[in-house]
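[step 3/7] fold_predict: job queued, chain A
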Amino acid sequence: MNEQLEQFVLKAQQAPPHSQDRSDAIDQLAQQILKGRQVARPYQNQLPGIYQEIVEQAQILLRQQLEQRLDDYHSHRIPIRQWAEYLRNEVFQVVLSRSRLQQLAVEAQKHEPKTAIHQYAIRELIQAIRLSGKLARPQLAPEVYQDAVNQTLLWVCQNLRSYDSNRGEFMAWVNFRLDRIGRSTQQIQQDSYTQATQGKIIRTKYQLSRLIQQLKSTDLLNLLELYVKKLISDLSFPVIVALVTLLSLAVAIQQSSMQDNLLYEVAQELVDLPPRLVQSEDLSAVEIAQDEKPSLIELLKQYIEEDPDELLQKSIKGHPQLTLQVIILARLEGASWTSLSQRHGVKIPTLSNFFQRSLVSLAPKIRAAIQQ
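[step 4/7] structure written:
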């Protein structure tokens, strides 16, 4: 299958833009990708009504995605199967809307229990729920949540006939049950050990929250300086990318309306080995060395802003105002790829690829300039 996918991709990429050959090749590629779908599969070599509609809608959306992203795909960056699965899953999360899931539930209710067509409809419904991304995400430990999801989907199979579409939305009905099962499962699993662990998570989350509330831009640079000095001796390409990412992430957490959930997830990762900075609730308790010379991070930021060697003025084709300098500074200020894409009318893969390719080639020059 990989070879066929690669052949279709190459054929479409080599065809002239807006030509019939390119259109046909994209159609063939979309059909090939959809062969590996996990939902709306044939029943006795046929696709009954609603399942045919799902496939046709997925074909249209996938074709649109391929037209936009095909030229940005390069096999040496991501395996063809992984790229195809990503596109397919992304399309089905759109196609399997809440109203479509409700239609699948009503369709399954039409068939007599224990018949072959009923079992097919139930399997399709459960798989569609899993792929849709419409299941709620209550604040549960990962293993508790997965157990709760499995129990909930089993409950749906057993109790689907009790669902009344006139009384409410199908996924609201499912997620209400998921919440109840999740709470019950968590209570059962919370023995003395898990209760102690949960307490550590909550305390770590509180400490993280206090730390982030006290962070200022200068403090953040100094904290990064402290970590960098412990871990690396010079600025390499991965480090430059890491610094940009960390700065953006910190700003995103401070500005996010989902900060509580984000901090809880981070606390779960840190609970077994919390860093010293997290253990301190008072930022003033952390001793941060203040060098007389500017830090590497300060030099990097200054270099990007001034661009004395004009290394960062390369721009994306057709967008002369969108230089590497503009992109890096925007990312440092917390701008997401989505916001940059919407602001400048450039696709996210194009932005990201340009950013990475440019830094790979320029990182040695930037490092040399900063360390002079």
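[step 5/7] annotate
The longest strand covers residues 319-323.
Residues 192-214 form the longest helix (23 residues).
exit 0
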